[in-house]
Write a structure and sequence with these properties.
Blueprint lengths: L6 H21 L9 H14 L3 E2 L12 E4 L2 E3 L13 E10 L2 E10 L5 H18 L8 H14 L3 E2 L5 E3 L6 E5 L16 E4 L2 E3 L5 E3 L6 E3 L5 E3 L2 E5 L4 E3 L4
Antiparallel strand pairs: 1-4, 2-4, 3-12, 4-5, 6-10, 7-8, 7-9, 9-14, 10-13, 11-12, 14-15
Helix pairs in contact: 1-2, 3-4
The structure holds magnesium ion (2 copies).
Length: about 250
């Protein structure tokens, strides 16, 4: 069931989303060679809780971390642990925060130190693919318009679109209907209406789109070990377009 949020509910989601945004900003100066993903997890959790919010992912389906930390060929759902970041790595950090019962969800991928040109290209175009998807959002558009725009952009830059994982509706649950795939046909799928809130989240690979899940039952990696990037925003459908809730 797709829920429509009231203005009041969207205001609360904007607060939750802004906490997610500020958690990302807070982590930025720590993203250096030598820090472990577990340390990042602890920093994020402490910050989120200091804002009267709860990390959305902690314990979600049994997930052990407060945030997801996915390095290089890891696509999403990396579990924070003792791995240390190295110069030349890229790390996707996915953060969810729940404030007064409403969730915000957003992922950014960062370079650690100096990264190679291929990884720069991947980050730049995955972030842009997110905005190509967001630009489709308005009442009367369809979910397939978002996926079609992301897929067309990824194809143009020869990046592999991960199809096994999709964006989603969001509200009092971190994952709600509808599914928001990063591929699809324009003019198909559920109709977007004012008051819907969705998380749009392209996951693009420098190589093949194929992925597999590790034995930890969480971490998703690329089949060909090529690097992968992930950018995500929580976006509300407004009267005449959209509003990004996981921003400033
Ligand atoms: Mg997320
Ligand atoms: Mg999400």
């Amino acid at each position: 069931m797709i829920t429509i949020k009231s203005n009041r509910e969207i205001e609360l989601m904007k607060i939750a989303g802004n906490i997610v945004y500020r958690t990302h900003e807070y982590l930025k100066p720590f993203l250096k060679e030598g820090i472990t993903t577990k340390e990042l997890d602890r920093l994020a959790e402490t910050f989120i809780r200091s804002q009267d919010a709860i990390p959305s992912f902690k314990g979600y389906g049994g997930f052990p971390g407060s945030i997801c930390t996915s390095i290089n060929n890891q696509v999403v759902h990396g579990i924070p642990g003792n791995r240390k970041l190295k110069n030349g790595d890229i790390i996707s950090i996915d953060i969810g925060a729940c404030y007064r019962g409403f969730h915000g969800d957003s992922a950014w991928t960062h370079p650690i130190g100096k990264i190679d040109e291929d990884k720069k290209y991947l980050l730049k175009h995955t972030e842009q693919a997110l905005y190509e998807g967001i630009k489709q959002v308005r009442p009367g558009a369809r979910v397939g318009d978002i996926g079609a725009a992301i897929e067309a952009y990824a194809n143009k830059y020869q990046l592999g679109v991960v199809k096994e994982l999709v964006g989603h509706g969001i509200g009092t649950n971190v994952h709600e209907d509808p599914e928001v795939p990063n591929y699809g046909q324009k003019g198909t799928g559920p109709l977007l209406k004012e008051g819907m809130v969705i998380a749009i989240e392209p996951m693009l690979n420098l190589g093949s789109p194929d992925v597999y899940i590790l034995d930890d039952n969480w971490t998703i990696e690329t089949d060909d070990e090529s690097p992968s990037a992930h950018f995500e925003h929580t976006v509300a459908v407004t009267k005449d377009g959209y509003k990004i809730l996981t921003g400033e």
